[in-house]
Write a structure and sequence with these properties.
single chain; mainly beta; 10-stranded mixed β-sheet; 4-stranded antiparallel β-sheet; 4 helices; globular; DUF868 domain-containing protein
């Protein structure tokens, strides 16, 4: 009898390594035929270890220069936490969260940005200390005082918000050992949705008035990745429509293959075991409001 896992992988769309891009460049692929929209905001959630038994969630939201950066620190993503603005290009800010003293040190005064993105790609730094211990480092411009620190953290969620366009381009790595992949989503006025990964079209959805919601499984870097879309408001609302696209990796315990896990036959379970899922959310709005 064939395994359930092999059935999932057979039905999933496979993205060959020969099409994969290398992670040395943080710039997303731009279609030569269309100009993708620039994200208005980018929100990243990191899980940072503060001790062998505890961790905190650090949420960073990158906006344009006038709005600056916002940060939240929490021990539970389902709990509402206060957000703090880091408005200056360089500075430090202290506050209390989760019964700990938090200090944030940042410098984006010489940061470089690509294609108008609010998130810097180089020449910046952002450091978070919890009770005087460094638990988070971001950027390539870390000073000598902090560069020897080796905090443990990983990205678990990324949300990009776009305004008034139908072509969305981004770059994402779905596991720590995987490659950075170019993702291009194109919505055609003729009622079609095209999704490309690493310059290769992986699937197309036609007749969106009937298929405005759906999902597709993609096999990428040895992982099952669910790609889901909801275009109802975008298709049926003329002025304030919104489209939502999500890519989410499955862990070994969330792949709906638990029957085989009990019998010890679950393939690829080591990849998901003990690792956090990663999700990429793309929100597109016809209008800012």
């Amino acid at each position: 009898m064939r395994s359930i896992t092999s059935c999932y992988i057979e039905k999933a769309i496979k993205v060959s390594d020969s099409y994969c891009s290398w992670p040395s460049i943080n710039q997303a692929y731009i279609s030569p035929n269309h100009v993708p929209s620039t994200p208005n905001t980018i929100t990243c959630i990191y899980k940072a270890k503060t001790s062998p038994q505890t961790h905190l969630f650090i949420t960073l939201t990158w906006c344009n220069i006038s709005q600056g950066i916002s940060i939240k620190v929490s021990d539970n993503l389902n709990r509402i936490s206060e957000s703090y603005q880091l408005k200056n290009n360089k500075g430090n800010k202290g506050f209390k969260a989760c019964n700990s003293e938090i200090e944030v040190i940042w410098d984006v005064s010489n940061a470089e940005f690509i294609n108008g993105s609010p998130e810097p790609t180089s020449k910046y730094s952002l450091i978070v200390l919890v009770d005087s211990r460094i638990c988070f480092l971001l950027g390539d411009n870390i000073d000598e005082q902090h560069e020897k620190a080796d905090p443990s953290f990983n990205l678990i969620s990324r949300t990009e918000t776009f305004i008034a366009n139908t072509v969305y381009s981004t770059k994402a790595r779905f596991c720590e050992s995987g490659l950075a992949h170019d993702i291009l989503i194109e919505y055609c006025n003729g009622g079609e949705l095209c999704v490309s990964i690493d310059k290769k079209e992986v699937f197309q959805v036609k007749r969106l008035k009937w298929n405005f919601r759906g999902n597709q499984i993609i096999f990428l870097d040895g992982l099952l990745v669910d790609m889901m879309w909801d275009l109802h408001d975008w298709v049926f609302k003329q002025t304030n429509g919104r489209a939502v696209f999500m890519f989410r990796t499955r862990s070994g315990f969330d792949s709906r293959l638990w029957l085989e896990e009990k019998s010890g036959c679950l393939e690829h379970s080591d990849k998901g075991r003990g690792h956090d899922q990663f999700s990429l959310l793309i929100c597109a709005c016809k209008n800012p409001r």
